[in-house]
Specification:
FAD/NAD(P)-binding domain; alpha/beta; seven-stranded mixed β-sheet; 400 residues; 13 helices; 18 strands
Length: 400
């Protein structure tokens, strides 16, 4: 079957799903993206694209900096609630080691730039995928708006993936990290000193600031709290927890619009999936390997997934390509999931002695050791070799 005739249906218009759709579209596939939300939204949070995600975008010919406008400052560090620095890294050091600095931008800006690469009508909003049947290697995608036939289905349907539950019914599902997170994006301030890219660690609480490329500031906070707890007054809760921390946190809190604050409990997968494919269905992003945000790699790994998957399914042998995709992605993403969970446990320590020892250990760790710990993640992205195409025997012509 010609690649020009192959049809991929993507369940979910998040960063991973849209990246996969763009990559396949550029390879001649017809793509349909089914998204449960009623339409694109500007509400959301920031995303930091590490160099590994930017290199993955390079492989599909997408320039993420076009969505950002300009590069954001990439100096990073960890602080104490009193403002003291535990560790710092600057743009020059990151660029020297990894070839480029990270890029911070609003998720909606990145999603809009990806969506603009697709043909009109390729994204179908208010169209959740309810199930996928996969008889005889020809998937049928079930939606409330009707059924869709496909040669390939990409399950990018998020952390609570219905398609993961359908095809892996014995998987234990999600694991609650013990923390909840609040996130919002503040408008660019007319006055005031630039905000550092920094995360402040208290006891069982964190507060982060990320200046975005368009001048806005992404702020987030986490706290150890029972699963499902929601404060009646979000701003009062944030002020109570973080209002006495170092500058500029109190001033940033005063600028928050409570209606624009997102709160989500933090989960990861309780155990790895046995594989990322079934028949002609492939899982990617949070649907495949949900991880906590402690390493900033959730969205980055979704972009890697999409780049690797599109590269491999260029092969005409889709079953072999999807098996190769699982082989290329399962171990890498699960190792990062486990590391993110461990980092979260350290950052969320609540006992004063344990938190003090943690802070001393961070301050005592030399910069080269910190970078070396991240090298495997940031430098670990590469496209795998294409699977060998099946060889069909050539039979000699029969004599007349």
């Amino acid at each position: 079957m010609s690649a020009l005739r192959r049809h991929a249906v993507v369940a979910g218009a998040g960063i991973g799903g849209l990246t996969a759709a763009v990559a396949l579209h550029r390879r001649g596939w017809r793509v349909t993206v089914c998204e449960r939300a009623p339409g694109p939204t500007a509400v959301g949070a920031g995303i930091v694209l590490a160099p590994n995600a930017l290199r993955a975008f390079d492989t599909i010919g997408f320039d993420a900096t076009r969505a950002a406008g300009r590069a954001a400052p990439a100096a990073m560090g960890l602080r104490r609630p009193d403002g003291g620095w535990l560790s710092r890294a600057d743009t020059a050091a990151l660029t020297t080691r990894y070839g480029r600095p990270p890029l911070a931008l609003h998720r909606s800006a990145l999603a809009d730039a990806l969506a603009a690469e697709l043909p009109d009508g390729a994204i179908r909003y208010a169209t959740p995928v309810t199930a996928v049947d996969d008889p005889a290697g020809r998937p049928v995608v079930r939606t409330d708006a009707g059924d869709l036939g496909a040669d390939l289905v990409l399950a990018a349907d998020g952390i609570h993936s219905p398609l993961r539950r359908q095809y892996f019914p014995d998987h234990p599902g999600l694991h609650y990290s013990g923390e909840t997170a609040w996130r919002t994006v503040l408008p660019a301030a007319a006055h005031g000193a630039p905000v550092d890219t920094a995360e402040t660690w208290g006891r069982g609480q964190r507060f982060g600031t990320v200046p975005l490329a368009d001048g806005r500031t992404y702020v987030y906070a986490t706290a150890v709290t029972p699963e499902g707890r929601r404060p009646a007054d979000v701003l009062a809760e944030l002020l109570r927890r973080y209002g006495g921390w170092h500058d500029p946190i109190p001033a940033l809190l005063e600028r928050i619009d409570p209606a624009a604050v997102l709160q989500h409990d933090l989960y990861d997968l309780a155990a790895p999936l046995p594989r990322f494919h079934h028949g002609r269905i492939a899982w990617l992003g949070d649907a495949a390997h949900a991880m906590t945000p402690n390493l900033g790699q959730g969205g980055c790994q979704a972009v890697e997934d999409a780049a690797v998957l599109a590269h491999l399914v260029d092969s005409q042998d889709l079953p072999a390509a999807l098996a190769a995709y699982s082989a290329a992605r399962c171990d890498r993403t699960d190792a990062i999931r486990v590391r993110a969970r461990r980092m979260g446990r350290v950052a969320a320590l609540t006992h004063p002695v344990a938190a003090a020892v943690r802070d001393l250990a961070v301050r005592a760790t030399p910069a080269f050791a910190t970078y070396r710990a991240m090298d495997e993640i940031v430098n670990g992205f590469r496209l795998p070799a294409l699977p060998a195409r099946p060889v069909h025997p050539v039979h000699p012509a029969r004599p007349a």
